[in-house]
Write a structure and sequence with these properties.
The protein has 10 helices and 14 strands. With 329 residues, the chain is of the alpha/beta class.
């Protein structure tokens, strides 16, 4: 078996697969209300997703796959895709906005999921409508509660933004008191078309300071290898929390991730422009292995070619040819 090592000696063993760019929500930081999605015929078919995933697992030792999107659970054949991926010898995880989870419990309870990441930016249903543009708070919250009661490993993903939801930081921390839940605070990242504004980024340092001011002692936890977040816990709390500090302090040095977009393009970085069309190559019987190896060799050291993001000096449109929902977050 070959390992996917880049020019900076990083070994890639984690693949995120986007099932679709479509979504039922319109989170303000991610998607405009009017959006042009990919035509369905451009998307990978279920068996093509499985063939590509199989190749990554069996030929390159990929040992973790995360299903994402857009909203992965919008895909009509999501059950077939998830069932197939679950047969591979790799950890399987999913990132979802949580709205449709209740339709999928029988499936998700029948397979081994290493984690479910559920996005929730507010604990207030009115604010949910403002940020996520739909009236689905209750359903998402109930699905989170169900997932926790069933013993799933649940991460709640919160995009923290100044002037939007930063005042709910301590309420989210409170959730970790009596429940074994992980709350992951994500810095607002720039993508083409998301009207990113540096002043709206609520940094991990600012958030940590507020938590320390309120609670005093904050225990740093040991980071797992290749983790993209900095984990912490409050003394005596059952759950924990972490920060994805891409903007203020990136974690590219340890990156082990590759991304397959819903239309079958391999991306070696969330912010990079390099894309390799694996779907067309698969359909035309081309040598997929060498295309994948070449793609990984082209990976930049940091942030798709930028040295840092904590600046007002760049235009997010320069970053990538795609929006977050079209890459697979
Ligand atoms: N629809 C699913 C969801 O929302 O969980 C999966 C796809 S979404 C693109 C994956 C993650 O990216 C979500 O947790 C979302 O909050 C996050 N995200 C989207 N746009 C972002 C941005 N501009 N900055 C930081 N995180 C973002
Ligand atoms: Fe949809 Fe997820 Fe983007 Fe929100 S963050 S619009 S739920 S893809």
């Amino acid at each position: 078996m070959e390992v996917l090592k880049d020019r900076y000696h990083r070994i890639h063993n984690y693949l995120r697969i986007s099932l679709t760019d479509k979504c039922n929500l319109r989170c303000s930081y991610c998607m405009p209300e009017q959006v042009q999605f990919m035509p369905s015929k451009k998307l990978m078919l279920a068996d093509e997703i499985f063939k590509l995933a199989q190749l990554f697992v069996h030929e390159f030792g990929i040992n973790k796959i995360r299903i994402t999107g857009g909203e992965p659970l919008m895909r009509k054949d999501a059950v077939d895709i998830i069932e197939q991926l679950a047969t591979l010898p790799a950890q399987l995880a999913i990132t979802t906005n949580g709205v449709f989870l209740d339709k999928y419990w029988p499936l998700l309870e029948s397979i081994q999921l290493s984690s479910i990441n559920i996005s929730l930016d507010t604990l207030d249903s009115n604010k949910f409508k403002q940020i996520n543009k739909r009236d689905d708070f209750d359903r998402v919250y109930q699905n989170i509660e169900y997932a926790l009661n069933q013993g799933f490993n649940v991460n709640i993903n919160v995009v923290l933004q100044s002037g939007v939801n930063e005042e709910e930081l301590l309420d989210f921390i409170e959730l970790t008191k009596h429940q074994k839940v992980h709350v992951k605070f994500i810095e607002f990242m720039p993508f083409s078309g998301n009207d990113w504004d540096r002043s709206a980024v609520f940094t991990y340092q600012e958030a940590l300071q507020i938590i320390q001011d309120e609670w005093g002692e904050v225990i740093p936890l040991e980071s797992k290898p290749n983790t993209t977040s900095k984990p912490y816990q409050l003394p005596g709390f059952m759950g924990d929390f972490s920060f994805v500090s891409t903007v203020s302090s990136h974690f590219c040095g340890d990156c082990n991730r590759l991304r397959l977009t819903a239309d079958g393009k391999l991306k070696n970085c969330l912010f990079g422009k390099t894309e390799t069309d694996l779907l067309q190559a698969l359909r035309h019987g081309e040598d997929l292995k060498s295309l994948i190896i070449q793609n990984v060799k082209m990976k930049h050291q940091t942030l798709g070619g930028l040295s840092k993001m904590d600046t007002t000096q760049f235009d997010p449109k320069e970053l990538s040819t795609r929006e977050m929902f079209a890459i697979g977050g």
